[in-house]
Design brief:
Number of helices: 16
Helix content: 40-55%
CATH superfamily of the largest domain: Uncharacterised protein PF01937, DUF89, domain 3
Number of strands: 7
Mean pLDDT: 93
CATH topology of the largest domain: Rossmann fold
Radius of gyration: 20 Å
Distance between the termini: 15 Å
Structural class: alpha/beta
Order of helices and strands: HHHHHHHHEHEHEHHEHEHHEHE
Number of domains: 2
Shape: globular
Strand order of the largest sheet: 1-7-6-5-2-3-4
Largest sheet: 7 strands, mixed
């Protein structure tokens, strides 16, 4: 790996990272209070977190009883203690961005009472997730559109369409309000979409050959529906598909095991015969063990993928291909650093334990595999090209260094 550049920081003046922490995080807290009407203790703790982000310093929730030792494995707790210890006492607007985001959700869940108290185990984002699945423009409506469009397609064309649906479904991220509102109706509209890197043909070939596919899920709602329909298509040719979900609520709409299984149930119960048939096939694959839905504390941690714990690395290394969904997972692949856009993901991700496929809609100021001249041109014609969700990446990587 080349010399490491600095991390993207919430202290970078005028950056999207700074905006995400100073504006989006307090707004997410407001939504949690509005949607859940928590008790006075939780409300006070949530408002204190909003104050801490604006005015205070990083403090750990691990020693005040809001995250009891029994709520985490020893390794998870130790990983958080190390990560928080490196940042404790710093201002929220002077932190590595990915730490600031992942730590925010740990603090929010602790304040809400997710780990201890009356709200123990309750997802504070479930009202929004439910709307994303059931609304007229939500996940089930998306499933009907995808199945209708794909019905007459051949095998390779259908797989390519499923990949593109899973990619553009990533536009709908409830922690990113601007993208969510402006792109909701354009998920499957391919006119004007811009793929900065398009390895569709390579991806289809790799997935067609694969016997063991693993998917690092991102958002629930329409994106998860598209991911599940992709899994359904893969299961027709691959004996094993594993979906990796978050252990706890994260980034507002990130998919947990409960979200994933609930979405499969919703697909199976849909009135559209094509959608319900896909749901029934997914149920059957779960029963037979050909489809697995797993969680792990690491997916909710502040660690990057260069720090995969041994059990995850051992599992992934047996894969023929790993599908890496979404912007945050892309950032974790690259340690959320200020890489030159012209560098190659092949070189920067040589540590990854298996061949992998990136499906990512751009919602952060980080990208590689884009020549410098092209990056300058895009900045001229569309100053927000890195964050506005209009562009995406389908990137197949075969790491050059095996693990």
């Amino acid at each position: 790996m080349p010399t490491l550049p600095p991390s993207i920081s919430t202290g970078d003046p005028g950056s999207y990272a700074q905006y995400a922490v100073s504006v989006r995080q307090p707004r997410i807290i407001e939504q949690v209070i509005e949607c859940n009407q928590p008790g006075e203790a939780a409300r006070t703790a949530l408002l204190a977190l909003a104050w801490e982000i604006r005015e205070g310093r990083v403090t750990s929730p691990l020693g005040n009883g809001s995250v009891p030792p029994a709520s985490m494995s020893a390794q998870e707790r130790r990983t958080w203690e190390d990560a928080i210890g490196a940042q404790e006492g710093r201002r929220w607007l002077d932190l590595p961005w990915y730490f600031a985001e992942s730590f925010f959700y740990l603090k929010l869940l602790a304040a809400f009472g997710y780990y201890a108290g009356a709200a123990r185990g309750k997802d504070p984002f479930s009202p929004q997730k439910e709307r994303e699945l059931m609304d007229p423009d939500g996940g089930l409506a998306m499933a009907r559109r995808v199945m209708a469009e794909a019905e007459a397609m051949g095998e390779e064309e259908g797989l390519a369409f499923a990949l593109h649906s899973a990619l553009w479904g990533n536009r709908l991220d409830l922690s990113t309000f601007e993208v969510d509102e402006s792109r909701r109706k354009s998920v499957l509209n391919r006119d004007g979409d811009s793929l900065l890197v398009d390895h569709t043909a390579r991806a289809v070939a790799a997935l067609t050959r694969a016997n063991r596919v693993q998917v690092l899920l991102d958002n629930s709602g329409p994106e998860l529906v598209c991911d599940l329909l992709l899994a359904d298509r893969l299961l027709a040719r691959s004996p094993s598909v594993t979906l990796h979900a978050k252990k706890a609520p994260f980034f507002v709409s990130d998919a947990t095991v409960s979200d994933t299984l609930g979405t499969i149930d919703a697909l199976a119960g849909d009135t559209d015969r094509r959608v319900s048939a896909a749901g029934a096939r997914l149920h059957g694959a779960l029963r037979s063990g050909h489809l697995r839905v797993l969680d792990h504390w690491f997916w909710n941690s502040a660690s990057h993928f260069t720090a995969f714990p041994e059990d995850i690395r051992t599992d992934l290394v047996r894969s023929d291909i790993v599908v890496v969904k979404g912007d945050a997972n892309y950032r974790r692949t690259l340690e959320d650093r200020k890489w030159d856009t012209s560098l190659s993901l092949d070189d920067l991700a040589s540590y990854f334990p298996a061949p992998f496929l990136v499906l990512r809609t751009m919602k952060s100021e980080l990208v590689v595999d884009v020549p410098a001249e092209e990056a300058r041109r895009l900045s001229r014609v569309d100053p927000s090209w890195m964050i506005n969700g209009k562009r995406g990446i389908i990137r197949h990587v075969s790491p050059r260094v095996s693990s």
